[in-house]
Amino acid sequence: MLGYVTVGTNDLKRSAEFYDKICAEFGVGRMMEFDTFIAWGKPGGGCGIAATKPFDGNEATVGNGVMAAFQADSREQVDKVYNLAISLGATDEGAAGPRGDSGFYAGYFRDPDGNKLNVFTMGG
User: Fold this and answer.
1) What's the total number of domains in the chain?
2) What's the rounded Cα separation, in Å, for the pair 115 and 112?
3) What Cα–Cα distance (Å) separates residue 2 from each residue in 43, 45, 49?
4) Tens of each residue's pLDDT in the chain, 124 residues
5) Domain assignment present for 101
6) Rounded to whole angstroms, how far apart are CA atoms 123 and 21?
7) Domain holding 102: CATH number?
8) Would residue 59 count as lying in a domain?
9) Which residue segment(s) compose the domain that 16 sits in?
């Protein structure tokens, strides 16, 4: 079971503005904050997400094949979060829509630092 996912950033202020708005759509805000690290979520409320400047002081880079996914309550929420992300400077990696016949509905995007994210729901 995942507790949280951390993405790297070279601009914590920009990441904070992006994730404050994305996470607000899921009803959560910042739960931990330091000079180089911010975490969003709800203690005991499932997986959260964090953005950090790398501890080693080197530039943050994007992991090829690495992705974090936000679980939405409905297709409407997937659409809303995907469109919000794009409006906040995210880049499209696959517009919100059905994927296959399994009931999986998802939108893919990269945050302003290039980290790949997904918002999805299963079923109707």
Assistant:
1) 1
2) 8
3) 13, 12, 10
4) 577 899 999 999 999 999 999 999 999 999 999 999 999 999 888 889 999 999 899 999 988 888 999 999 999 999 999 999 999 999 999 999 999 888 999 999 999 999 999 999 997 6
5) yes
6) 25
7) 3.10.180.10
8) no
9) 4-54+67-122
